[in-house]
Design a protein that fits this description.
The complex is a heterotrimer. Chain A contains 19 helices and 20 strands. Chain A is α/β, with parallel strands linked by helices. Chain A folds into two domains: 261 residues, 3-Layer(aba) Sandwich (Rossmann fold), CATH 3.40.50; 254 residues, Rossmann fold. In chain A, the strands form four sheets. A six-stranded mixed sheet of chain A has the order 6-7-8-3-9-10, sandwiched between helices. In chain A, strands 16-17-18-13-19-20 form a six-stranded mixed sheet, with helices on both faces. In chain A, strand 9 and strand 10 form a beta hairpin. The longest helix of chain A has 18 residues. By secondary structure, chain B is mainly alpha-helical. In chain B, the strands form two sheets. Chain B has a two-stranded antiparallel sheet. A two-stranded antiparallel sheet of chain B has the order 3-4. In chain B, a hairpin with a 5-residue loop joins strand 1 and strand 2. In chain B, helix 5 crosses helix 12 and helix 9 packs antiparallel against helix 10. Chain B starts with a helix and ends in a 7-residue tail after the last helix. A three-stranded antiparallel sheet of chain C has the order 2-1-3, with no helix packed on it. The interface between B and C is large, with 50 and 45 residues.
């Protein structure tokens, strides 16, 4: 039975000067008890569609040239939402449609307690209830989303809860008035993999128990295959394909969907991989990084945060080692310490057999040529004030690579070619390029000194799937052709599978399990590894 | 929290030490430095008598000793524990309960503590009156501007506020005194000081001639106020604008008439048009609360004026109103700059929070826009205002210097200027100490207030 | 996923472009331009010495002859600024080049230019009265800033256009008899000069200390923060008063003093920016590439941290000008040189209220401060990444 009906929706957004069409003629239906996943890359208009349904777009900056949104109730009568008055919308929002958002850290009001914020929904939509009843309902709602110790938690402020807990509170808040439809805008994107798995399971459970309709927006095909009944694929504001999850994922008809699925790292074709060669390029022995915690009147050190707690690791030439773990496990700290950007508290770092743990900065400088790094955020990986040419040439000048400027220019141009960027990029500034292009330029900058080892810290996490595919292929090629050693930090298992030869799983500052990727993924030995792998949503999971 | 407070207060000490040291170094390093010259200059004494006087002053104040020693002696004087100071200036025995002694002012010959006790309350009165006024008005304006974001009120108020912030205090003070408090133009306000001598003996509240006068006064005032408030709240936009323009024009004409008679002239035209434009615009602003407040204030004032013109006799204005009347101009001049700044800050903070994620969540729950503003966004928006309040007191103290000079108010600001001009070492150092102390206390209070307001912040 | 193809300019050009689009900035810049014109061309706009004089058939250019070193330096600065604007190259280098060349020009002028030391303003009026002048071309305001009209006796304060003996004073005269309009125009130099130089000094001190604090942290940070706190907690006006009262009232002293008392705000900004930048990926990448410290500080960190400084500097110039006028108003300003604050001071000196001494100089102060505040606000919008047009709005 139809619950939400969107007909030919068009939404235009303004940035103050021009109007831009964000949603262009989208039609879809969500039925009772069904999960509809709206998938697409960034900028495809999926979030704008959801916000249009709820009328939550910024006041003066949007308009709907055409379209109709109808919310049907059990009797079959429909309420038109698009362009409805404030009174109608206020009644529908929270009462008949609940919505949860992507960033749990900023979506709750920091100065009100959780109980107060949930109570507000009840006061608005169920004013006939008295205080004790409301209290009871709030407690029950929190218990339903598995917040332990609900009665005490109710009186706490949001900043005391973790991201996963906050998202649970958001779900409780959205569902407490028993709406017929729940809209979820990428609710698990900002969460860890294991937390994501639990939240997804929770949402599926609640949906089935209540017979709710669920409109779930995401960019992750793994999530889609785990929870969706129907899938809609969006590209540049248009709905290019729509159908059951089995049809769309197994037998996509539209070229865009096909290319998207083909770009998923799980589906990328893998070449032959060589065996690791003899001497380790980079070796860590019992590395530890501890940060002091200071308390009290005199700021004395009371304890330490053990970010990295005794890690031993090796990376050989011509291989990619993936370092996996959830947020806060210490993998980024490990990476930076390896490069001597942070100082280790204990242990040894060996580069090509040489102990570099205690070298002074001056002594380190010539060795820095051998190890380079590429970071996660394309927005800050390149100096915004310098043209690309300077960014590439400066390290060469400092280290005396090349005999004169012409030779250096030639090298820079050659590098650009290797990372598949046009040669005239040299004269441009970073903000002229897209995220994926900037990451390629960052890789070029890392390669300019001809290193033997590269550290990649979640470099594709902020990129779209199709862009990511290109970068991963480039990296693999570089490793295979040039015999580089690479330590690739990530939390995305699909990428690990495609890219890496060996894998190390990190948890709370320690390496829990390591070995050849194929072996570990097929047969994980440790409990944590098993939990981690089970939590990752895979494309091939979808039933039927 | 207590350890944090303790730490902050402990840290205040080196900072105060540093401040007084800097000022002392400036004094000592100047050409002429701190010497006895400024005290004996200008007195017509022969060489011997002059020498004797110099010797006396040197011993009394230790002016002939090297600068570091002078500073240390001063530190010793102000610390509660230290060497006692004898009447002729030498050091006495060590005592644990000496008590802080701020010294004797060169210029006035009186003890500095007495001087400060006289002058400080006046400055504090001015500033403490200003602070709630500033906050109340700036929040009102800021909220209204944020509500009508992008609208006419918002854009207009933005420009007006920036303009207000840019007008130098001394210009406003001079213009006010020149035009509204002088013999030549409108003599609506007193020219200076904080109270008339006669008023000190008057009754606290105004004394009217008879019971009938009281009734008449109250009736007229009430009528005027109710009329204007009703018009501001209930009338339509066009009626309001028209009514405001008419009223403003009439008032403008009356202003001109007070100066140059009823015959129309250039001044009459200018003032009528200005009055009409200003009141017409004010009557048209979108915020009902603001309009009612403005109308109420105007009604009260007009009521009193009309009542007096109609023959109600006021025998004595009373201490309270005399005081208030003297305070109006100085407080306005002192506050308008900070008011403009805070209003803009409030607006910016509100706009930022109205677009925040949690506001979107609230809307998604079905909360109406008004409630989102007042229940969710308002408290979050106040946080930067609290941070800024730390710097409010120092800037008001600085403003006091100018205001007190212009309005001839004997407060600490004026004292500071005089101290510096006469190179009065004790006074300069003491004023620095007090100002520094007040400033640091202001910072500390602001931090505590912030910790109370924002549950995310906790000091360990 | 699209490729961005728009051509963009370096950041400084972007900011300037975004700035010039805004009406408020244009108004502010227009007024500043008026001030600059007044300051540069003052000797030709308001001067007792005629521009061109023929007496007894002898031709002379008295105004040119009496040009001081300061006049030449201001004019040279103007011409050099036009050059610097037309040249290509990074904005910062052009600015430094301009500044250095102006300094050199000033030095040369100071050494070489020697106008007659004894200046008699009345001689031309006497010549005219005695009928010996064949032809004269005067400046639009035929009174110098320091021409106290002694030949008319003790004229004192006169209202605009109220003088009876054939003189025309558009803005009236001040206490010593000098023409207000002329003094105001010459005072534009003081206002502009103090604004820039004081702010410049404060910027340099603040950037150095703030940068050191932000980059090195630890002990350096602690000491620096104490220094900043001390200078913040000292009532600025009071410190200024103390300085000026004790050290005397030369204009250079005032510039330095105002600069020394206002650096703490800039230090805080620079420190905050450096702390943020230290963890930025491209800086970490630069360190990982083994680039020298000077390059990391000056090429990678500082240019990226400049944005809040620009905004603060614009407001800072406004407050420096206000500081100078406050000092002059309190009677602690410059003695003989014309200044707006000093004129304002005279408005309430005598028992009568001389409105022209409040309205005109006060209006000039207001417009100048307003202009800088407008520019500051427009700059803030121009550099704020949130309100900025996605210049390259790199989507994923």
């Amino acid at each position: 039975m139809k619950l939400l009906e969107i007909r030919d929706l068009a939404t235009e957004l303004s940035d103050g000067r021009q109007w831009m069409r964000a949603v262009d003629g989208v039609s879809l239906e969500v039925r009772r008890g069904e999960t509809f996943c709206l998938v697409g890359e960034s900028g495809s208009g999926k979030s704008v569609t959801a916000l249009s349904v709820m009328g939550l777009l910024p006041h003066a900056r949007h308009r709907h040239p055409s379209g109709e949104v109808m919310l049907h109730d059990e009797a079959g009568t429909g309420v038109s939402l698009l362009g409805a008055g404030d009174a109608v919308l206020s009644g529908v929002r929270g009462g008949r449609i609940g919505m949860i958002f992507q960033e749990p850290m900023t979506s709750l009001n920091p100065v009100l307690t959780i109980g107060e914020q949930i109570e507000e929904v009840l006061l608005l939509h169920r004013p006939e209830l008295d205080a004790p009843t409301r209290h009871e309902r709030i407690r029950a709602a929190l218990e339903e989303v598995r917040i332990a110790d609900a009665a005490t938690r109710m009186r706490e402020y949001p900043h005391r809860l973790s991201g996963g807990q906050r998202q649970r509170v958001m779900i409780a808040m959205a569902l407490i008035c028993e709406p017929a439809l729940l809209i979820a805008d990428e609710p698990t994107t900002a969460l860890d993999v294991t937390v994501q798995a639990e939240i997804l399971r929770l949402m599926r459970e609640l949906q089935q128990r209540r017979g709710m309709g669920l409109l779930f927006i995401t960019h992750d095909f793994g999530v889609v295959s785990r929870i969706a009944d129907t899938v809609g694929v969006m590209k540049k504001g248009q709905l290019v394909e729509c159908g059951t999850v089995a049809d769309v994922l197994r037998r996509p008809t539209h070229a865009y969907t096909q290319s998207l699925i083909a770009s998923l790292p799980e589906r990328l074709p893998r070449g032959k991989r060589g065996e690791a060669r003899a001497q380790a390029l980079v070796a860590l022995r019992d590395l530890a990084v501890h940060f002091p915690v200071r308390r009290g009147l005199l700021r004395r050190v009371v304890s330490h945060v053990r970010a990295v707690d005794g890690v031993s690791l090796e990376v050989h030439p011509g291989e990619v080692v993936a370092l996996v773990g959830e947020s806060g496990c210490g993998k980024s700290t490990l990476g930076r310490t390896l490069l001597r950007l942070l100082e280790p508290s204990a242990g040894k770092i060996l580069l090509e057999g040489r102990d570099i743990t205690d070298l002074s900065h001056t002594a380190m400088r010539p060795l820095r040529r051998r190890m380079q790094v590429v970071f996660q955020d394309p927005g800050s990986s390149l100096n915004p004030r310098l043209p690309i040419a300077t960014t590439l040439l400066e390290p060469m000048r400092v280290h005396g690579v090349g005999n004169d400027e012409d030779e250096r220019f030639a090298r820079a141009a050659e590098l650009l070619e290797r990372v598949e960027m046009p040669a005239d990029s040299l004269w441009r500034y970073p903000h002229e390029f897209s995220g994926g292009q900037r990451q390629r330029l960052a890789i070029a900058r890392a390669l300019v000194l001809e290193p033997t080892f590269i550290l990649c810290d979640e470099i594709t996490s902020a990129l779209d799937v199709s862009v990511q595919a290109g970068i991963l292929k480039l990296l693999r090629r570089l490793v295979d052709e040039e015999g580089l050693g690479m330590l690739f930090i990530t939390h995305n298992m699909g990428v690990v599978e495609y890219l890496s030869d060996r894998i190390a799983v990190m948890h709370a500052g320690r390496i829990v399990e390591s070995g050849r990727t194929a072996d570990v993924l097929a047969d994980p030995q440790e409990a944590y590894t098993r939990t981690l792998l089970a939590a990752v949503p895979r494309l091939d999971e979808c039933v039927t | 929290m207590l350890t944090y407070l303790f730490r902050r207060m402990l840290l205040m000490v080196p900072t105060l030490f540093g401040i007084t040291l800097v000022v002392f170094v400036v004094m000592a390093a100047a050409p002429g430095g701190i010497s006895v010259q400024s005290l004996v200059d200008g007195s017509n004494l022969d060489a011997e008598a002059r020498q004797a006087l110099e010797d006396y002053y040197n011993r009394l104040y230790g002016l002939d000793q090297p600068a570091p020693v002078q500073y240390l002696r001063w530190l010793n004087n102000i610390s509660p524990i230290g060497f006692e100071r004898e009447a002729d200036g030498t050091l006495g025995a060590f005592s644990l309960s000496k008590g802080p002694d701020l010294g004797v002012s060169f210029r006035y010959g009186r003890s500095v503590s007495d001087l400060l006790a006289e002058r400080l309350p006046i400055t504090l009165l001015l500033n403490l009156l200003s602070i709630p006024l500033i906050y109340a008005i700036s929040i009102a304006i800021g909220v209204q501007a944020a509500r009508s974001r992008g609208g006419r009120f918002d854009l207009a108020s933005n420009v007006v506020l920036l303009g207000l912030w840019s007008v130098p205090t001394m210009l406003v003070g001079v213009l006010f005194i020149g035009f509204f408090a002088s013999e030549q133009y409108w003599r609506w306000f007193p020219t200076g000081g904080l109270i008339r001598r006669e008023a000190v003996d008057q009754t606290f509240l105004p004394w009217l001639a008879s019971g009938m006068d009281v009734l008449w006064m109250l009736a007229i005032v009430a009528l005027a106020t109710t009329l204007l408030v009703w018009a501001a709240a209930a009338a339509s936009l066009r009626m309001r604008r028209l009514g405001g323009a008419v009223l403003g024009g009439v008032l403008g004409y009356a202003m001109a008439a007070q100066l140059t008679g009823f015959a129309p002239g250039a001044l009459h035209v200018v003032l009528t048009l200005t009055g009409a434009a200003v009141l017409g615009a004010l009557a048209g602003i979108p915020g009902t609360g603001l309009r009612i407040a403005l109308a109420g204030g105007l009604g009260l004032m007009l009521g009193i004026v009309v009542a007096r013109a109609a023959g109600v006799q006021v025998v004595q204005t009373g201490y309270l109103f005399e005081r208030a009347w003297h305070l109006v101009l100085p407080v306005v001049v002192l506050s308008y700059g900070s008011l403009a700044f805070l209003a803009k800050l409030t607006r910016a903070s509100l706009l930022e929070n109205l677009a925040a994620d949690y506001a979107r969540t609230a809307r998604a729950k079905g909360v109406t826009e008004e409630t989102v503003l007042w229940r969710h966004v308002f408290r979050n928006s106040l946080l930067p205002l609290i941070t800024v309040s730390a710097t409010l007191l120092p800037s008001l103290l600085a403003g006091s210097v100018i205001v007190e000079s212009i309005f001839s108010i004997d407060g600490m600001g004026k004292l500071a200027v005089e101290a510096v001009q006469t190179r009065d070492r004790e006074l300069v150092l003491s004023v620095t100490l007090i100002s520094g102390l007040l400033t640091l206390a202001g910072y500390l209070l602001a931090d505590i207030a912030y910790a109370i307001a924002d549950p995310r912040v906790s000091y360990d | 996923m699209t490729e961005q193809v728009q051509r963009a300019r370096p950041w400084s050009a972007e900011v300037i472009g975004a700035l010039l689009v805004r009406t408020s900035a244009r108004i502010g810049l227009a007024w500043i331009a008026v001030l600059v014109a007044a300051a540069v061309f003052a000797p030709w706009i308001a001067n007792s010495h005629p521009l061109y004089l023929v007496v007894d058939e002898k031709v002379s250019f008295p105004a040119m002859r009496h040009l001081t070193a300061a006049d030449y330096t201001w004019f040279a600065a103007f011409i050099l600024a036009i050059f610097a604007w037309r040249l290509r190259g990074p904005v910062f280098l052009r600015f430094v080049g301009w500044f250095l060349s102006v300094a050199i020009a000033g030095l040369i002028a100071w050494v070489c230019v020697a106008p007659p030391t004894l200046v008699i303003h009345e001689q031309y009026r006497e010549l005219e009265a005695s009928g010996r002048i064949d032809f004269v071309l005067r400046a639009p305001i035929p009174y110098s800033a320091k021409d106290y009209l002694r030949d008319y006796g003790d004229t004192g304060i006169e209202a605009p256009l109220a003088a009876s003996d054939g003189r025309v004073h558009w803005f009236g005269t001040e206490d010593n008899g000098a023409d207000v309009a002329s003094r105001m125009i010459h005072a534009a130099r003081i206002a502009l000069g103090i604004g820039f130089i004081a702010t410049g000094i404060a910027l340099i001190i603040g950037t150095l200390i703030g940068g050191l604090m932000g980059y090195f942290s630890g002990v350096v940070d602690m000491i620096g923060m104490r220094l900043v706190e001390i200078f913040e907690a000292i009532p600025t006006l009071f410190l200024l008063l103390t300085f000026v009262a004790f050290f005397g009232r030369s204009i250079y002293m005032m510039m330095i003093i105002i600069g020394i008392t206002s650096w703490s705000g800039y230090a805080r900004y620079v420190r905050a920016e450096f702390l943020r930048l230290r963890d930025q990926d491209f800086v970490q990448g630069a360190i990982a590439s083994g680039l020298p410290l000077s390059s990391i500080l000056f090429r990678h960190m500082l240019p990226n941290g400049v944005a809040p400084l620009l905004v603060a500097a614009s407001f800072g110039v406004a407050s420096a000008i206000l500081a100078e006028t406050t000092l002059s108003f309190l009677g602690l300003g410059l003695v003989d040189d014309p200044s707006w604050g000093q004129l304002l001071n005279q408005a309430v000196q005598s028992s009568t209220f001389n409105w022209w001494l409040a309205v005109f100089p006060g209006g000039a102060i207001f417009l100048t401060v307003f202009a800088y505040n407008l520019i500051g606000e427009a700059l803030r919008d121009a550099v704020d990444p949130h309100t900025q047009r996605a210049a390259g709005g790199a989507a994923r």
